[in-house]
Amino acid sequence: MENFLGAAEYLMRPDNLTLLIGSTLAGVVIGAMPGLTSTIAIGLLIPLTFTLSKETAFIMMVAIYCGAMYGGSIPGILLNLPGTPTAAISALDGFPMTRAGEGGRALGISAMSSSFGGVLSGVVLIFLSMQLSTLALLFASPEYFSLAVFSLCVVVSLAAKNLVKGIISVGLGLMLSVVGIDATTPVARYTFGIDEIIIGIPAVPATIGLFCVAEAFRMVAEPSSKAAFRHSATGIVATLWEFRTLWSTVIKSSVIGTFIGALPGAGSVTAAFLSYAEARRRSNTPEKFGAGAPEGIAAAEAANNAVTGGSLVPMLTLGIPGDTNTLMMLGAMLVQGLVPGPTLFREEPLLINVIYLTVIFASLLILPLGVFCSKYIARVALVDRKFMLPFILVLAISGPSISYGHIYYFWITIIFGFAGYVLQNGGFSVLSLGLALILGPLLERSLRSALMLADNGAAVFFTRPISLTLMLASAAVLFFGVWRNRQPGSW
Amino acid sequence: MLAEWVIGLFGLVASVVFFAISFSFPEVSADPGGLALFPRIAALLTGVSCAGLLAGLAMRSGSAGAALHTFGRFFVNWRENSPAGFEVRRTTIVLALCALYPLLVLKVGFFLGSLAFSFVLVLFYRGTLVQAAILSLVLAVVLQMFFVTLLGVFVPPGDWTSPLLEAIGL
Q1: What is the percentage of chain A residues whose pLDDT exceeds 90?
Q2: Nearest to B28 among A185, A220, A389 (CB)
Q3: A175 vs B52: CB contact, 8 Å cut-off?
Q4: 3-class SS at A226?
Q5: What is the Cα A470 distance to its own chain's centre?
Q6: Residues 6 or more apart in contact with residue A186 via CB below 8 angstroms
Q7: CA A372/CA A80 separation, integer angstroms
Q8: Which residue among A69, A136, A153, B107 is least crowded, i.e. fewest CB within 10 A of its CB?
Q9: Residue A54's pLDDT band (boundaries 50, 70, 90)?
Q10: Closest partner residue to B39 among A175, A395, A403, by Cβ?
C-alpha cells in the first residue's frame, strides 16, 4: 500500500503530472494520424530511458499507449478516416451517426467508453499482476519454455490469417533470434564474417522496421487522402448521460478487452471485433449495427482501451508482450536491464505502481480530452500524405537507431521494414515474427537450462504440472487455429 | 502471390543454410542442448512449413510456367500504366531512397542527410519546392534538437562535412 501511495505522490508532482497530461494528449493526436502509430512513438521514447528516470520514461510510454488507443476513433467517427485499425470498427456506426447530425453524441460515447475501459483494465492490471507475479515464483526453466511456446501458438492461431504462414513467420523470427553471440557460451553464430552482426539483431530497430517502416511502405502506394467532407459535431457533453443506458455494454466489452489484451498477439482489433459482435448479438435492435448504433461504438471503444491494462499483465509478470506496444516497452525494459517477473515487482515497486496509476489516470484523462478537444484533433487526419510520409519515414528510420551510435541500426530498420512490407503483401503475420524475435532468446535459454538440469531429458516439459498444462493449452490453441482455418469466411 | 513465393523460397533456403551451419558449432558436454539444438528446431520448423507452402503454391499455379509467370509479372508491372505498376514503381523508388538515407547520413551528417531525404520525398509526392524546403528544414531542425539537446545523443557529423564543421569550431 505504501508503494502505491508513493507512486501516487510521484505521479502528482507538477512535472510528472504535466508529462502525463501532455503524453496522453500526444497519444490521442498520434492515434488520430493515419500511418503514425503508438508503436513508433514508444520506440522513439526508448532512448529516453537512458536520460530520464525509468519511471518518467514509462509514464510517457504508457500514457501515449492509452491515448493512441482512443485517438484513432476521432477521425474515424467524424471523417470516416480511422487513425488506427481498431477505430475502423467504431467508424462503422460512428460515421453514420455523424452523417445523421449526431457526431457529437458519437464522440461523447467513444470518449466515455474508452475512458471506462481503460480504467477497468487498470484496476484488473493491479490485482491480476500481483497474483500472477506470485504464481511466477513457481516458474522455472521448463515453465518459461512452455509459456513461450504457448504464447507463440496463440499468436499463430489468432494473429495469422493462415496457420502455415504463421508458423513460417514464427520460424523465421526464431532463426533470426539466434544470430550473433550466444549468451551462454560466447560463440558467434550465423554472423557470416560480418562484424556488426556479432551483437545480433537488435530488437527495437527490427520491430520498428517491421511495424512502422513497413506500414509507411504500404502507404506509399496508396493514393493521397481524399478531401473529407466535414460534419459538425455538437452536444458532446450531454452524451455523457448515455452511460446509464450503455453501462452493461461498456462493462462487458471492457472485460472482454482486458482478457483479450492479456493474450499475446490477439490485440485490440480482435478485442474490438469480438465485443462488437457480442454487443450486436445481445442487442434488441441488431439491425441498427452498422447504421449508427451507439452500442456499437461503446463496445468497440471500451474493448480496445481495455486492451491496454490487459496486455501489460503478461508483459510485467512473465515477460510476454500482449501486443506491439508492450513488445516495444519490453524492449525498453530489457535495454535497461530490467527483468519482468517477481524480481521486477520486488526490486522496482515504484516503477510497477507508477505504471498501474498511469494506465488509470491516462484513461481518466481521455474523457475531458475527448469531450473538449476531439473536434480539433480530427483535423490531423487531413494532413496530406506528402507531408506525413517523409515525417514517418525519417522518424521511424532514425529515431530508434540514432542513439545506438552506429549506422548498422539504420540498416536493420530499413531491411526489416522491407521484410515487413513483403510479409504483409504475402499475407504473413508480422506480429508473429516480431514476437518470435523477442521470445527466441528466452525460449533457447529455457530449453537449454531445462535440459541441463533434468535427468529425464525433454520429458521434463511434460512431467511438471504447470509446464504440462501450458503444453496441452498450446496444442489446444493450435487445434483451434487449424479448425478456424478450415471455416469458410473465418475471421 | 509473388510475395508468397519470395518468402517461401527465402525461408526454405535460409532454413537449409541454418541447418547445415549448425553442424559446425562446438559441442559442450555440460550443455546437452548445445549451440545447435535450437537453431536446428527453428530451421526444421521453417523449412518444413516453407516446403509445404511452396508445394501448395505450385499446385495452385498448375505448372512451372505459371509459377515463373508470377515472377515475370513484377517486371511487366514496372512498365505498365496501371495500379499494380504504380505500386511497384513507387514502392521501389521509395525503398531505394530509404537505402540511400544511411549513406547520406554517413557522408553529410544527420542534419543534412535528413534534410535532403525528406526534401526529395516531398518533391516525389508532388509537393512544391517551397513545401519541400519548409518541411524538410523543420523536420531536420526538430530532430537535431530532439536528439542532441533533449536526449544528449551523438549524431554523426558526416565524413564530408566534419572537416568544415571543425574549421568553424562546431
Answers
A1: 21
A2: A185
A3: no
A4: coil
A5: 23
A6: none
A7: 20
A8: B107
A9: confident
A10: A175
